[in-house]
């Protein structure tokens, strides 16, 4: 007597079922969409009953092609997936995605057939990355403890937990395509997704909490300007970040045609969000710093005004914008160190350990709130669409005694009279 037909069901995604069964000595598989478990089980029972009664006809196999004869690899599918997505990405988005693929996912999975990528392989990739990160971190800490006169080259970094998780997200997206194309039975990144990813500790967020500390940072940048080439772009850049609240990428993309000193405004035209494209009213101190920087550039620019409009505010000698890495290593880190030394010498606390360039945007928001600006004004100036962002992350209120409020207003170039109402502004939009 022939054995009864058997089959199995797997829910690969909500409402999507992968059914496998044996019939007439062969294995068959189908994918059913848009049904619940009860309907999937009912259909399977009917299918198996038809097989047992010889009422079901197996589809004729399609002619095998070279592509069908070989299991596609992760690298082959990743190349097609990237080609279909790259047009939707910004240049920075493409760079980041290429970094995930070329730097990490393809070396790990590129030659692996898709059907061989399971939970063990995904977890092995994650654990291997974490082990390299821990080893690299320990090596760098040991290097830091050595005598600077005798230690060798600084050990290389390795991607940390947050970056590993970004790679895993991309891996899951590509394997989703494989699942939809019936190239794999299930996506291992969708099986207890949280268990596949690294645990990431929320980064400690900093901001500069006093007018004196902000002034020390700007003064340190001015010293670097004088030591290097006399051009005040370094101090001006930090002023744009700490008083204007621009992201560093937005500031580095600025051209002089985006700055209207007469109106006291600048226009952010390149931002990572749609709401980030905005007009920013300049505090008087920032407008003065920009005017000084413009005058210095104009003096050294052939063809004067006409050519200046197209130049970046913070460009290289070749006319390109400064890179983030250059700004961080050659300006921000030395300025933070010098500013902390100034503050300690004056008997004040140094700048926070771990201070990042982006923390200057948080500092600028803190200054805006401390000066009494309302939430809608700050949101528009900083390019935020939802109030949860400034309230949850950025609304760090500075010390609000009368002395500190006066110091902040002086730093911003405002008078030291009490804050005026929202409707009473000067033409540049300042309080």
The whole-angstrom Rg is 30 Å
The largest sheet has its strands arranged as: 1-2-3
* Gross morphology: elongated
CATH class of the largest domain: Mainly Alpha
Strand content: 5-15%
Q: List low-confidence stretches.
A: 64-69, 417-431
Total domains: 3
CATH fold call of the largest domain: hpI Integrase, Chain A
What is the number of helical segments per DSSP (H or I, 4+ residues)?
A: 17
Mean pLDDT: 85
Binned, the helix content reads 40-55%
The first-to-last residue Cα distance is 92 Å
The helix-strand sequence is EEEHHHHHHHHHHEEEHHHHHHH
Structural class determined from secondary elements: mainly alpha
CATH superfamily of the largest domain: Intergrase catalytic core
Describe the overall structure.
This protein is mainly α and 431 residues long. The protein has 3 domains: 7-58; 72-196, DNA polymerase, domain 1, CATH 1.10.150; 211-412, Intergrase catalytic core (hpI Integrase, Chain A, Orthogonal Bundle), CATH 1.10.443.10. The protein has 17 helices and 6 strands. The chain has a 3-stranded antiparallel β-sheet with strand order 1-2-3, with helices on one face.
Features:
elongated, DNA polymerase, domain 1, hpI Integrase, Chain A, 6 strands, three-stranded antiparallel β-sheet, disordered C terminus, mainly alpha, 8% strand, 431 residues, single chain
Q: What does this entry show, briefly?
A:
The protein is mainly alpha-helical and 431 residues long. Helices cover 51% and strands 8% of the residues.
Present the secondary structure layout.
Blueprint: E1 7-13, E2 16-23, E3 26-33, H1 37-52, H2 66-69, H3 74-85, H4 91-109, H5 119-145, H6 161-180, H7 193-196, H8 211-228, H9 233-244, H10 248-252, E4 259-260, E5 265-268, E6 278-281, H11 284-299, H12 304-308, H13 324-345, H14 359-370, H15 375-382, H16 388-394, H17 402-412
Antiparallel strand pairs: 1-2, 2-3, 4-5, 5-6
